[in-house]
Design a protein that fits this description.
By secondary structure, the protein is of the alpha/beta class. The chain has helices at residues 6-12, 35-51, 68-79, 93-103, 115-122, 138-144, 180-193, 211-224, 236-242, 253-260, 285-295, 367-372, 413-421, 457-464, 493-499, and strands at 22-24, 33-34, 59-63, 83-86, 107-110, 127-130, 160-165, 175-179, 201-204, 227-230, 248-251, 275-278, 300-305, 309-313, 327-328, 333-337, 350-355, 380-388, 394-399, 404-406, 409-411, 426-436, 440-449, 476-479. Helices cover 29% and strands 24% of the residues. It has a seven-stranded mixed sheet with strand order 10-9-11-12-13-14-15. Strands 4-3-5-6 form a four-stranded parallel sheet, with helices on both faces. A four-stranded antiparallel sheet has the order 16-17-18-19. Helix 2 (35-51) crosses helix 3 and helix 2 (35-51) crosses helix 6. The structure holds adenosine monophosphate (AMP). The site of adenosine monophosphate (AMP) has 18 residues, from strand 13, strand 18 and strand 19. Adenosine monophosphate binds next to strand 13, strand 18 and strand 19.
């Protein structure tokens, strides 16, 4: 299907010969949605976008709830040769002003409550469509005015298909430009690596404005003609119940810690499942072990980022090692390198660099930023620090920007966090560097306890002094109720650094 449109062809491949099969188990009205119906409505949506003035390469920005209409808008944009730009629903209208100014979308889809404010902002530069939580609104109305049967606009592998603003915690967000080829190759690589079949049914409880929920979860499903149980949000009870008729769950680490807190999640509840995938943030090795003890499944942890799609994965068949993100996916080259891009010996830390059909085309309108993050030989510098262990598996040690330099010595927060997380009374930890008059930066630890009564600072220090060189030991320990996390479960160390920045000020 859609032969000349590279991505639409890849995403319709799995169901092309079986269009009567189910794509979404229950849509907004509780009805099952077949592939035939989904593609027909996406074609109608593509025709509506073209009628609204969308030309190949134009952006469709979408800050919308998780509905079937939202997926039709995504597929419709691809069929019309447009560039889909999903936006986090948490952004304020003020923040959207930056994104719309930078991306200059031709169509903006939004919640009905925001329509007027966005229309005032974009003036006559863009058409603004509402999409409500039940999928109704301007986009659905526009779609319904057009028949199915839209001829997909030809798109080659190098043509843009989407861009996403990176969740960059400092500076201005950058739009990572992803091509038809980037998304198509990553979907087929993952489908093969994880042995995805048309008979699979995925519990989809991730947001669809992020690479994980849209380009991993939805694209793999479409590419293989599998089905989705499409949930608005994550609820451990609903997820546990859905397992009886599903085979795969993709989640961020908190999905798994919260399932473990849910008594109804048992081996019996999970007996129909074949695969649990975790990514977007580090999964604690302890969670991995507890999960296996509870239900017998070893979570498959994979690693990726907006700019690169998925880069590495623990094996489907073979040893899944807790605390590692596996080996490079087929067709993807990865190296751990020093500051000049020269690979470091196995077992040593360096920056993870990657090259392959998955790697993005650069940052929208930011050629200097793009150039600064690629090596001359084409490798993209991820900014993650990692090491390849003796089994050849990649271990992520942290973000380069989270590296602490104390008294001129490098301190890798993950090393200290791993020790702290194992201590009695410590549920999780975040180790950060804060300004210090003597050391430049001082190491401090922010801890969350299991109990209302937590161990004292002296207790904690006594347990780690033998394991850690003095310069790595936290100078202070703080207890908090919970660590600040963004929607993808990543700990926001920038917020913690801001909270404690004056600690050692004199
Ligand atoms: P994003 O572009 O928002 O998806 O964020 C990508 C970043 O998330 C990566 O550069 C890593 O720092 C982090 N990340 C993703 N998956 C993992 C993982 N399995 N373990 C550790 N960090 C991860």
């Amino acid at each position: 299907m859609y032969n000349h449109n590279h991505l639409a062809n890849a995403l319709s491949h799995g169901a092309a010969n079986n269009l009567a099969s189910i794509f979404i188990q229950a849509g907004e009205q509780g009805d099952a949605i077949s592939y035939a119906s989904f593609f027909a409505r996406s074609e109608q949506m593509a025709a509506a976008l073209v009628a609204a003035g969308l030309e190949p390469g134009d952006r469709v920005a979408a800050q919308i709830d998780k509905t079937v209409t939202a997926l039709e808008l995504y597929m419709g944009t691809i069929l019309a040769g447009g560039v889909f730009l999903p936006l986090n629903t948490a952004y304020t209208v003020k923040e959207l002003e930056y994104f719309c100014g930078d991306a200059e979308p031709k169509v903006v889809a939004c919640d009905p409550d925001r329509k007027q404010a966005i229309q005032d902002m974009v003036g006559n530069h863009a058409v603004v469509w509402s999409i409500a939580g039940d999928g109704s609104g301007d986009a659905a109305d526009a779609r319904d005015q057009h028949p199915a049967g839209f001829t997909a606009v030809p798109r080659a592998a190098d043509d843009l298909a989407a861009f996403l603003y990176t969740s960059g915690t400092t500076g201005q967000p950058k739009g990572a430009m992803l091509s038809n080829g980037n998304l198509a190759s990553n979907a087929s690589t993952l489908a093969e690596a994880w042995q995805y079949k048309a008979t699979d049914c995925l519990i989809h409880a991730l947001p669809i404005f992020h690479i994980h929920g849209l380009f991993v979860a939805v694209n793999i499903t479409l590419a293989t003609g599998a089905s989705l149980i499409y949930m608005k949000k994550y609820q451990p009870q609903a997820i546990t119940q859905a397992m009886a008729s599903a085979s795969v769950l993709m989640g961020v680490p908190t999905f798994y810690t919260r399932l473990l807190d849910h008594a109804e999640f048992t081996a019996e509840a999970a007996q129909n499942m074949r695969l649990f995938v975790s990514g977007s943030a580090p999964l604690l090795a302890e969670t991995h072990r507890q999960f296996e003890a509870r239900c017998g499944h070893r979570i498959l942890e994979r690693y990726g980022m907006t700019e690169t799609g998925m880069m590495s994965s623990n094996p489907y068949d073979g040893e899944r090692i807790a605390g590692t993100v596996g080996t490079p996916l087929p067709g993807i080259n990865m190296r751990v390198a020093d500051n000049d891009g020269k690979p470091v010996p196995q077992g040593e830390r360096g920056v993870v660099e990657v090259k392959g059909p998955n790697v993005f085309q650069g940052y929208w309108k930011k050629p200097e930023k793009t150039a600064a993050e690629f090596r001359a030989d084409g490798y993209f510098i991820t900014g993650d620090i990692g090491l390849i262990d003796d089994k050849g598996y990649l271990n992520i040690v942290g973000r380069a920007k989270d590296l602490i330099i104390s008294g001129g010595l490098n301190v890798y927060p993950k090393e200290i966090e791993s020790l702290l997380d194992k201590l009695e009374g410590v549920k999780e930890s975040a180790v950060i560097g804060v300004p210090h008059p003597d050391f430049g930066e001082a190491v401090i630890a922010v801890l969350v306890s299991h109990h209302s009564h937590h161990p004292s600072e002296a207790d904690i220090m006594a347990q780690i002094t033998d394991d850690l060189a003095k310069f790595k030991q936290p100078k202070k320990i703080f207890w908090v109720e919970e660590l600040p996390r963004n929607t993808m479960a990543k700990v926001q160390k920038n917020l913690l650094r801001a909270d404690y920045q004056d600690l050692f000020a004199n």
